Structures are given as structure tokens and as C-alpha cells.
Amino acid sequence: MQAIFWTVEEVAQRAKQFYENGIRQQVECDDHIGKMIVIDAETGEYGIDKTGVETALKLKQKEPNARLFTMRIGYDVAVSFGGAIERTVK
Questions:
Q1: What is the pLDDT of residues 15-46, one digit of tens each?
Q2: What is the spatial distance between Cα 89 and Cα 40, in angstroms, rounded to a whole number?
Q3: Do the Cβ atoms of 21 and 14 come closer than 8 Å?
Q4: What are the distances in angstroms from CA 76 to CA 34, 73, 89?
Q5: C-beta of residue 76 within 8 angstroms of C-beta of residue 85
Q6: What is the dihedral sign for C-alpha 33, 60, 57, 61?
Q7: In this structure, how many other beta carbons lie within 10 angstroms of the beta carbon of residue 70?
Q8: Is the model's pTM score more than 0.70?
Q9: Partners of 69 in the beta sheet?
């Protein structure tokens, strides 16, 4: 099977579509706010953990060519270098 090349922007857009169209309602709760969600941009499969590393490794083990996108649940950015991270969910 021939691989299809996706830009970083396409991976982000597809993952965000999965998030907005169903994942958000399942994960934005007090138990998950501030944790990292890793989304497979092709399948919509996802996992949640504190740093995203364990989930990314599991998804890559399952599908080595997976196109993964990571977000911090309930925040506008995943990390900040010298700035502030604003919470989008109260």
C-alpha cells in the first residue's frame, strides 16, 4: 500500500475535526482537564494520559505509520515557553 503524504496542517485539521465532532463531549470533564490527548488523524482513535507519551507509544505500536496529533484537554495550547496557558473550559 502506498503512503499518502499529509502536511502538518492537514494532520492537525483532521485530528481537530475528530475532537470537535465527538471526542470533546466524551473527554472534557474534571477527570481529564489538563491531561494530554493523542489522536490518530486517520482513524480518530485516541488515548489520554498525563504527558501523552504512553498513549503515543501505544498508538504507534498498533500502527507504526500513524499520524498523531497531541492536545491538552481544556486548554488553548499544549505547552507554553515563557507564556501563559489559558484554560478554555471552566
A1: 999 999 999 999 999 999 999 999 999 999 99
A2: 23
A3: no
A4: 11, 8, 9
A5: yes
A6: positive
A7: 17
A8: yes
A9: 39
